[in-house]
Amino acid sequence: MQQLGVSAALIAFSAGAFASTTVGAVQNVKADDAEVSTSLDVVGAVEADSADVEVKTVTKEVSLPFDTVEEDDDSIDKGDEKVTTEGEDGTKLVSYEVTYVDGEEVSREKTVSVIVSEPVDEVVSIGTAEEETVDTSVPNSSAASNPTGNRAIGKQLAESTYGWTGDQWQCLEALWTRESGWNHKASNGSSGAYGIPQALPGSKMAAFGSDWQTNPATQIKWGLSYVKGRYGTPCNAWSSFKSKGWY
User: Fold this and answer.
1) Residues 208-236: pLDDT tens digits?
2) Whole-prediction pTM
3) I need a surface site. Which of 70, 125, 155, 241 has the fewest CB within 10 A?
């Protein structure tokens, strides 16, 4: 390959006796692998045995097709794919020395090839993420069926605030049993989470009352609002907790 910047190529042609020689530069523009850009002609009009012979340098534009590259992507579901980079064809200019006898082409030899633009690969992301299996089973415990203390407050507030009874109450009871044992003074020494819903940080619960550190009802109200806003229902929050270990 030669680099772009070749402006003319003069080719000497010798065959028999020269009657006359003319050098001319001809500009020729066409598309799609036709004669394009600059067509530089070096013409030698030669008379030998009554035959008219011409030698021309012809430049053509050639398309360079792009390739497709596939890359695994664990952020896309398995079986799905997405084009993340659009492919673009490149182009190159190719010059030929073409010989004509009596107007008919008799030979063609490539002399110069110049890349104008490199092709850009198309990138396709292939999904590898496995579908998460969600455990939709509903827990059932005697503590949920016959709540006392903080659980009783939680059951009453869940029903009066969001209408969460039955399975939704069972899920909420199981969730906060795992988080804090329904202890309104429960504190996680490593993360700083606090209270029945294990708010992180615990001071978030001040939105529902300045007594958030000591009042289980204040903590439960905040926790119910959090579950509603983030998961929609306690059973959705419980399913997420079982798959990740937190909610």
Assistant:
1) 999 999 999 999 999 999 999 999 999 99
2) 0.47
3) 70
